[in-house]
Batch of 3 targets.
Target 1
Amino acid sequence: MQGKIAVEEHFTAPGLEELISRIGWEPADWARVESRLQDVEFRLAEMDRLGIERALLSLGAFGVQEIPERSRAIELASRANEALAGIVADHPARFGGFAALPMQDPLAAAAELERCVTEYGFKGALVNGFSDVDGGGALYYDDARFDPLWERLVALDVPFYLHPRNPHASQRLIYEGRPELLGPTWAFAVETGTHALRLITSGLFDRHPDLTLIIGHQGEFLPFALPRLAQRMSHLKHVRLEKSPTEYLRENFYITTSGNSHTASLIGLLLEVGADRLLFAADYPFEEMADGATWFDSVPISEPDREKIGRMNAVRLFGL
């Protein structure tokens, strides 16, 4: 398919390499990934070869979320966004941007979001999971302090991409002795899906019904777990939501194909949430761009659905 729009593609810039995690990479493989994070020309050549018209770029994991010092997180988020704005300005027809946000300070995150959307034309924000805070804790975004950020997202009419990271170090006992299960093999999806559930069950989407979130990797297990969860939660009298968790997934979330080129999962998503809520992504360069693109071009779905997922949903959502 020509004209695809890839919505979870990552970058870094000189001086920001410390913000990118090397979890699960052999040194030679990581050197290639790190080079491609900064190589604009090779990225464009691959996009041309694979029929990708535009890519929405974001700072790779774990970004500023791993920086516990609030002032330093604010500074590094600003630097990352300025670097990304330069790349987008050089290639405005090929790239768009998601803002990195210093979620360690919710008001500063809201201000940085507005700056990036209004000054740079960014299409929303991508945040790499919970944020570390001084003292060794973790800040999850169902906290009431984030309401100003959610209000700003709705006012600006842009989405929030909840991207994975590993669980907090204090929460990894189940992975002890099995480091192969950390990172994208398993722990990323469990952590991100659970974080998304915190947002859903907190009543976030009842307070902000027009808020839009994006999750990747064909839904971080959620589409296939929510029916069971919703059925059991219906028996919990202390949980008061206006809709079922599955309805929030269908109405307030978009789900991308990033890094998960699995046909049966995509068919399941079409049945569970419908083609209008799905977006194409390759997760480059942490995954090979060609793997995601060639799979998507040939996956056995209808051509109208391919056009929606590969292009038109992104055009509508991001105002492209």
Target 2
Amino acid sequence: MDIELWWLLALPFFFGLGWLAARIDLQHLLRESRALPRSYFKGLNFLLNEQPDKAIEAFLEAAKIDPETIELHFALGSLFRRRGETDRAIRVHKHLIERDASLSQLSDEQRLHALSELGQDYLKAGLLDRAEDIFLKLRGTARDEEALRHLLEIYQQEKEWEKAIAIATAMPGHAEHLWQKQIAEFHCELAAADLLNGRHDEARRRLEAALAANRKCVRANLMLGELETKVGSGSDARNAAIAVWQRIEQQNPVFLALAAEKLMTAYRELGREETGLLLLRGYLERHPSLDLLDAVFQAELATHGAEAAYACVRDELRRNPTLLGLDKLLEAQVMLAPVERRADLELLKNIIHAHTRRVARYRCDDCGFKARQFHWRCPACGGWESFPPRRTEEFDLTP
């Protein structure tokens, strides 16, 4: 009975304490709300009513009225950039930086943040030279890693591969070989320009640097084989190219399809078509792919005719049934069929071919972007070597 009476006396006391705390919090909230400009609340109201354009105008007005609203400036600039209004984002962040230059109101972190945001605005707007200047200023600061990342993006867009190599070498994780694939690809880009302009010695040096950076760089060996055929002549040059291209099986056999036609051309020029065909058949058996099947089909067709090409595709279809393989089978059947049956087979082939167009694309492993053409760098996400030379139908068939 005494305990119950004690609780009856304590309850009003605790209730009073709660009421007093609520009053204090409410007064604090009212003081803060009075300190905020009216346009700030108008902006919130517009946002709640799904009127983003009017909300932005209201927040801009709030930022003008209260020069202390630094975080509001950052929020507005980020919002403008995401909406694609880069000119307005640039104005907001430039206003912060210029105001700080005269009043010194920003902390060191806020100053670096404002510079970084302005650099990203310029980058989004395509003003790469201005963005580069901003991010170079951020080198050696607390935002050094962020600056490096954006500079690497800029130099790749501008195809400044020498600068890209220097930045990638300075990236965190370089010692752990996290950027070796990209560095090798940058060397390959430089080598491609050298090959185009006949600078064969320089191209070889670049390709050797690519392989030193990443021994699994297939592209470097593909180009080295081409270089051997350009600088040399006769059987020695062809045999050297063949030896280089054969190394791809140890690097990444998925990419053998890219070397198959080159290999067959070199063997044909050496007068050793049968040896070349035997090599490609072995590759197809060990590392089946639709592009490799197409290369073997074309080689059989050119060397032994339609009947041998038909037999090759038929055997592969029994082992790996695919729609694209069926398309090749029908192509050989049309060549072998009597004249009176060709029209029907052509009709069937055209129907199958129309369907194969949907599954005859390459797909980026990183972002899923699909393209009819093979790319060393994904046009969508910018990933290097993220496009394996495998058609989407092969991905669908993978267990």
Target 3
Amino acid sequence: MLNGAPRGSARSLRALEWLNAIVADVRAGVGPYLAIYLRARRHWDPEQIGLAMSAMDLASVLGQTPAGGLTDRARDKRLLVVAAAVGVAAGSLLVVHSQHVPPVIAAQAVIGAMAALFPTAIAAITLGLVGPVRLPRQVGRNETWNHAGNIATAILAGLIGSYLAREGIFYLVVALSIVSIAVVLTIPGHEIDHAEARGALDTEGHTHVSSVRALLMDRRIGIFGLCAVLFHFANAAMLPLLGQVLSLGKDHRAPLYMSACIITAQLVMVPVAAWAGRACAAYGRKWVLMIGFSVLPIRGVLYTLTADPIALIAVQVLDGVGAGIFGVASVLVVADLTRGTGRFNLTNGAIGTATSLGASLSHVVSGLIVQHVGYDAAFLALSAVASIAAGCLWIAMPETSDARRSEARRHAHGEGHSRARYG
């Protein structure tokens, strides 16, 4: 695929896009609806609900790096999606049919661990189908379909939980898991290049697998990992804090406002993700990432300037811009940095683990700041961290797409608009 021709057929690429839309809900299990279900139907106390929610989060964090390593080694990446879907479906059924705390906690841990397989497996399938040249546009399309799926399934789950039965949300996850299995198996296995899918092919088409130590010694991976952790540390707590601010006035519409915040961001992510894929291919990764990193500190400051719910919801547009860009560009940066190493998915998983830990720490630190100083101070502190992340990216992180840098230099010297080879 060095000439840029995709290995995957148009039918396979369309199946990949549908898979991203369907998996958007499956990978999170019942997510935020679990707390509502356990409280309303099982009458669990907050401590028990917290344990169940934490079990999924912890298993997901701990599972991401091993999931990446497993994805690199697996010859048939499709089977990883199948295994993950089966695990999530089984865990969802166990939650519904078990009346005791330990099995539900165990089920949530299984859902978290299995869900960690989805992002690395889908990224690998994508790279194996289209190759590095066409990866930016395809990742952009993947994320577009993923965010659209998030919106559709959130609406569907809300309607089922409100008008049919709260248990219906669990069965929705099971149904979507079955559909995701059927969809991924429509992608012929022979169209997925195993060596390409793990980033083992270099620019000359030779296969090479580097040691993990070589990855750890790559300064660029360390810098990007640090930038990503700081970004997620600054970003993760902003929406929950906003939800608390919206509920301070005891306005009965606070849940509606919160839903509007989430939907607003997701709606913005749909076109932003599509644009980010094209922009990363045309202009390189760093400039596009800088846009996503730059809007985050602005967003935090804007939250402190108004208490009007409509204005606060409008600020969520910036959340959609930042998250939409990061979801696309981060995968491309990792693919660039690990090309010819055979460790694309392991690195992707490790970055995911690091950013998840940063997000978890964000909630703890922001909560302490709110308790002692207030909400405005917390937003400003998160904005300060976001500014550090943007500065680190701008100063220390190089452009990872060498082909785009070469193309820019040729344009600057009037050498025409000939298309550069990737890598």
